[in-house]
Amino acid sequence: MTRYSEQTKLLLAIDCIIFGFDGENIKLLIIKRGMAPEKNKWSLMGGFAGPREDTDQAATRILKQLTGMEGIYMEQLRAFSDPSRDPEERVISLVYYALIDLRQYKEQITEEYHPAWVPLKEIPELIFDHQQMVQEALRTLRYKAALHPVIFELLPDKFTLPQIQMLYSCVYDIEFDKRNFSRKLLSTGLLVKQKEKDRINSKKGAFFYKLDKSKYKDKFRSFLNFVPNADSFMM
After folding, report:
1. Which of 44, 89, 108, 177 is most buried (most C-beta within 10 Å)?
2. Contacts of 71 (CB under 8 A, 6+ apart)
């Protein structure tokens, strides 16, 4: 007899939410579920943690097994533990999320589970409580983007003002006025103007900039000024 023999056994699931930016849209990676219940319906990447692996290892394994993707840094969101969330068993799900440059990882995707990148406004009905997971992950992403230059990681080392405006418009689902956005962004003192211009994507040639990460922590409040209602994303 074990010490915990009278306790109810629970299953620990791992679900992975991967947001990808393709230069124009933020998209969500989903797959067709390969097991019952809800087989062949749209789902997040998910599976069960093994008895000899920690949750980070399980998340990495599950993502690679279902999509072929690897080398992605993911963060824990939270646990979803409604007793009725899975109709078959008592399952607690620990959710991970990440935001990646879709263009860098597109070639890694395998087709076995029919993975698809779908725009956030076109997400189909997902199984169980996966829709709630996505909404909470997106809210957390917006919160973190207002406090830390996390979404700058999706841009090249040198970027133009139109590129960063497009990225922020996608993350916050807000249309920014071009002139006001540029003015407020430059007024933060966080960008370093380069001598080169983008002659490929801009007819007139837009100047390249770099983010001065050494100043970001001290000046992030000024950075919030150009995100309308940014305080609503504070958790």
Report:
1. 44
2. none
DSSP codes joined into one string, 60-107:
HHHHHHHH---S---EEEEEE--TTSSSSS-EEEEEEEEEEEHHHHGG
CA separation, residue 105 to residues 108, 110, 192, 235 (Å): 5, 11, 28, 30
Helix, strand, coil percentages, rounded to 5, for the chain: 35, 25, 40
At 107, give phi and psi (nearest 5°). Answer: -75, -15
41-44 CB contacts, 8 Å cutoff, 24+ apart: 41/125, 41/126, 41/127, 42/124, 42/125, 42/126, 42/127, 43/126, 43/127, 43/130, 44/15, 44/16, 44/17, 44/126, 44/130, 44/133, 44/134
Q: Are the C-beta atoms of residues 22 and 102 closer than 8 Å to each other?
A: yes
**Amino acid letter, 21:** F
pLDDT per residue as tens digits for the range 45-93: 999 999 999 999 999 999 999 999 998 989 999 999 999 999 999 999 9
pLDDT: which is higher, 112 or 226: 112
DSSP state of 189: T
Give the residue carrying structure tokens 């076109």. Answer: 122
Query: CB burial class (10 A; 0-12, 13-18, 19+) of residue 129?
Result: middle
What single-letter DSSP state applies at residue 122? G
